[in-house]
Amino acid sequence: MATGFGTDVVVIGAGIFGLSVAWSCLKRGMSVTIVEKTTIGAGASGGVMGALSPNVPENWSPKKQFQLDALLTAEAHWAEIDAISGLPSGYGRLGRIIPITNARGLEHAEIRTEDAKSLWDGEAFWHVEESTKFNGWIAPDAAPFGIIHENLSARINPRLACLSLAKALQFKGCEILEGWEMATIDHNEISGPSGTIRAKAIVMAAGVACFPYLESLWGRNAGMGVKGQSAVLGGVDAANAPMIFGDHTYIIPHENGDISVGSTSENTYGDPYSVDEHLNQVIERAATICPALHASKVKHTWANVRPRARKPDPMLGPIDGPAGLHMATGGFKIGFGISHKCGETIAAMIAGETVFLPKQFHASFAEANK
Ligand SMILES: Cc1cc2nc3c(=O)[nH]c(=O)nc-3n(C[C@H](O)[C@H](O)[C@H](O)COP(=O)(O)OP(=O)(O)OC[C@H]3O[C@@H](n4cnc5c(N)ncnc54)[C@H](O)[C@@H]3O)c2cc1C
After folding, report:
1. Which member of 52, 69, 309, 329 lies 3.0 to 4.6 Å from 223 by CB, making a disulfide possible if both were Cys?
2. Are residues 116 and 213 in the same domain?
3. 324 and 358 together in one domain
4. Residue 258 domain-assigned (yes or no)
5. Residue pLDDT, tens place only, 307-365
6. Which residue's CA is minimally distant from atom 37 of ligand 1?
7. Are residues 341 and 286 located together in one domain of the fold?
């Protein structure tokens, strides 16, 4: 522990970003305290979807490479976490099916089959197949030009994954203070009604709550919350089937036999946590693609707000502000797929190492691009 500091690193927020940063810092031998306003996974991370899916294999970029590296290392990461915590994260690399609905889509899908071979380093495939290969799981009418079947995508159970990671952190000596709300950040110090914590590094991983704070520093909009609604359906056992992504809708079989469907994407909304008729439309779309869902029942629903930076990229690393402050937010729709790699990046930055990071992912890039 550094002299004069209560801890090496204090992380604000016990969502998947904050927990992942804490994990990577601990692995480097730093002492870590997490403060969480309410409870572990109380924000966007406590959800029910959990698609870890790649971008299409074309127009390659450092961003896509970062995401690919994350997806290819996720299995080993979660296996390690689950082994230490003794809890299941629900991770499973079961792949994804995308219905092809027109001739142009088929043409693109076939070109991407070749691109995937080289861009995905031979680690995963992207095939065009007959929809009848997944008879009963996908409606032939929903895929008149066949399907894309890729085996890079995985699913995780977001809520369970947060609990597994939190338990592994605590087992390794990380302090997680729930009910501890950060109110102010000063040089190497955060304060709130529960007290003050001094640390060499402060990592703000407070999800959408990062944006008003950044706005107060930058004097302009830094990002927004995009609401999503989703549902968990029971009564159809398809735990080992690939997830489906069609008509803007994910259908994700989970390890316990439940199937999650979602999500809406709403830039304007009233109550961020309630569901409405938009979710019924999502469920109907899902059942049109996956007829087995007609026999299912809604077990529960969930809505929350994704942290979307102004340019929809993660915001990672130091900014011009209180000494020691690093940002870790902006996971938007792919937060779970990249979180462990974002965590490693922040930990390396805190350790003073040079990191490889797409330039758009640096918080300082967002800061400079007003
Ligand atoms: C409906 C929906 C579906 C989604 N589906 C997927 C998907 O399939 N795949 C995927 O990869 N991603 C998905 N996402 C996105 C993913 O959930 C987010 O990218 C990710 O959870 C963001 O994590 P985070 O840690 O940055 O934020 P959060 O999980 O919101 O964590 C921030 C934490 O900070 C705490 N906090 C806030 N202010 C303070 C404060 N002042 N003091 C202390 N603590 C504070 C909050 O209570 C919260 O626990 C989905 C999101 C939604 C809403």
Report:
1. 309
2. no
3. yes
4. yes
5. 999 989 999 999 999 999 999 999 999 999 999 999 999 999 999 999 989 999 999 98
6. 206
7. no
